[in-house]
Amino acid sequence: MPSPHVVLLQAHPECRPWQVRLFGLTLGLVTGADFVAVSMMGVAGGAIQGGVSAAPQEYLWALTSFAVGAVLVNLLLGRFATLISYRRYTEWALLLFMVGSVGCALSQGIVSLALARLLQGLGGGGLFTASRILLQLVAQPKERKPLMYGFLLGLFGLSGMAPWLSALLVEDWGWQAIFWLQAGFVPVLLLLVRLSYPLHAGAPTRAQAGELDWLAVAALGLGALLVLHTLEDLRFLRFSARPGMWLALSSGVLLLGLAWWRSHSHPDPWLRLHAVLRRRYLMGLAFYALYYLCNGIWSYLLSALLQRGLGFDFVTTGTVITLGSMVTVLMALVYLYASRWLTRRHHLLAIGFALLLLCCLWLARSAMPGAALANLLPAILLHGLVPILSVLQIAAMTYAEVQTEDFAHAYQLKNILRELAGALGTGVATLQLQAGEAQARVALLDRLDGVSLRQWGVGLDAASLAHLSAQVTQQSVLIACHHVLLSLALLSGVAVLVSLWQRDLR
After folding, report:
1. What is the DSSP string of 98-136?
2. d(CA 160, CA 150)
3. Do residues 311 and 301 make contact, with C-beta atoms less than 8 angstroms apart?
4. Is the pTM of this model over 0.70?
5. How far is it, in rounded angstroms, from Cα 77 to Cα 81?
6. Which of 283, 294, 256 is nearest to 42 (CA)?
7. What is the three-class DSSP state of 6?
8. What are the tens digits of pLDDT across the range 214-227?
9. How far is CA 466 from CA 144, 287, 305, 371, 455, in A?
10. In 3D, which of 110, 78, 64 has the Cα closest to residue 224?
């Protein structure tokens, strides 16, 4: 008679120890698919934008459409999970994500790319929420920490490896390889889900899911689209010149207000805001939004700086970004082990934003024409500590007062905000770099005339002028990156002060 195996999940004694450990890792890998889809649009933004021949303002639609898809699916998640369980929801969402990824790879223009990204968002935008809620539902509090080791390893490991793997493929196959990689990973994830997920788990009660309010869903989805795209368009936000932007922004705000009112007046809302909107949770949401906004700016900015500003190829850029991410993977495991002894987490949060400030100032000072990678690498590696000292501390403090039955609602709202803030950060970085580069180019060209060219020994032949044009372009990008880095440093400094001043997250 075979000896009984060790039970690691009391609610699911049928799961063997290897399944439970694989379950935690799979949850992280599934979540990583969402993160990779978002981050690679920033890291490889230049290649993708050029591949579909889109202007920066047009490229924003590819960012906005994913975020809107993610917003909608996070609203629908509770209802779908009630009907089919979180396990089956994850499988169907991964399949839809794969279809969207294939559509992105086959896109010939910005319209088809934006529509395919919408499908990607509908499929992948809810994976983080579903994975985190499932971990909460399946495991008791004392059983969650071992699962979190695998979760963080899968999440940060996959997110960290993606830039390097994508860069290797792009070198040989073009920008489409980024999306083929995302699509090709889905069958592996589906197999892992089949092997490790408990068969009958993660289906909340109908009271937890709520009755679906289609009017509120439509209002929030369309309102998020209008508001987000208008805010991303900050470079062109001149209302006197473009009065239609007033109408778009006002309409979006009114639609969001309608969705909010419906959530309070509906007898059985899809998102019980009154149950989660307490001071601690609201402060946590504010810091979540601030972190993901900064992260969206940093991801796009670092890629632009290394490639367009300093002339490193995509493989080198992807390798450097992956090295920084590996610091995050290592320190995430160290953090979990040491978390039992950590107190005063708001101080760690302040240190995290202070490190971001330091990294921005380091890069702003070191990014000169011809700068060696060794001068930049310390700041990039140091940035690997920022997620550990910031977003993980926010997560540990935000949900301290959220009841178990309200966790799904709290996490749905949090991830809606995450998608919006991340897309907003990438969009703002895209347009502000374009604006800064254009202004710097004009300023540099104003200094050039025939006399100054002869004084500097620059000839007027075609080859010399082409070389000079390339230098002006590179210098313009570096100046623009310098300005955005200083702006991000200023934003990080404000976050440090707010972290120390506030009293709700302790």
Report:
1. HHHHHHHHT--SHHHHHHHHHHHHHHHTTHHHHHHHHHH
2. 15
3. no
4. yes
5. 6
6. 294
7. coil
8. 777 778 778 877 77
9. 60, 47, 22, 22, 18
10. 64
Tokens of 13: 């004694």
Helix (H, G, I), strand (E, B) or coil at 504: coil
Q: What is the pLDDT of residues 249-267, one digit of tens each?
A: 778 888 878 877 776 666 6
Side chain identity at residue 31, one-letter code: T
The residue among 35, 292, 326, 304 whose CA lies nearest residue 164 is 326
The helix/strand/coil state of 285 is: helix
* C-alpha–C-alpha distance, residues 393 and 403, integer Å: 19
Q: How many CB atoms lie within 10 A of CB 236?
A: 14
Mind listing the pLDDT tens digit for each residue in 438-457?
Answer: 887 777 776 665 545 555 55
Q: What number is the average pLDDT over the span 10-35?
A: 85
Please tell me the distance from the alpha carbon of residue 92 to that of residue 341, in angstroms, as a whole number.
40
| Predicted pLDDT of residue 236 | 47
At 171, list the tokens.
Answer: 């070198």
DSSP string, 170-193: HHHH-THHHHHHHHHHHHHHHHHH
pLDDT band, very low/low/confident/very high, at 206 (cuts 50, 70, 90): very low
How high is the pLDDT of residue 6?
66
Element of type H or E holding 194? helix 176-196
How far apart, in Å, are the Cα atoms of 86 and each of 65, 96, 186, 248, 345? 24, 15, 17, 36, 32
Return phi, psi of residue 198, to 5°.
-55, 140
Give dist(CA 354, CA 497) in Å, integer.
9
CB atoms within 10 A of CB 356: 28
pLDDT of residue 101: 95
Q: Among 233, 271, 276, 230, which residue's Cα sits nearest to residue 252?
A: 230
Tell the residue number behind the tokens 């699509």, with chain if given. Answer: 183
Degrees, nearest 5: CA angle 428-370-465: 85
In order of 44, 167, 174, 186, 318, the CA distances from 171 in angstroms are 12, 6, 6, 22, 11
Q: How far apart are CA 328 and CA 389, in angstroms?
A: 10
| Whole-number pLDDT of residue 242 | 57
3-state secondary structure of 392: helix
Q: What integer is the mean pLDDT of 202-216? A: 57
Give the Å distances, CA to CA, from 381 to 49, 285, 372, 438.
27, 27, 15, 30
Q: What percent of the chain has pLDDT over 70?
A: 83
Q: How do residues 328-339 score in pLDDT, each as one tens digit?
A: 999 999 988 888
Residues 6+ apart with CB under 8 A from 257: none
Residue of 475, 476, 486 whose CA lies nearest to 360: 486
| pLDDT at residue 259, rounded to an integer | 78
CB-CB contact of 469 with 293 (8 Å): no
Q: How far apart are CA 146 and CA 150, in angstroms?
A: 7
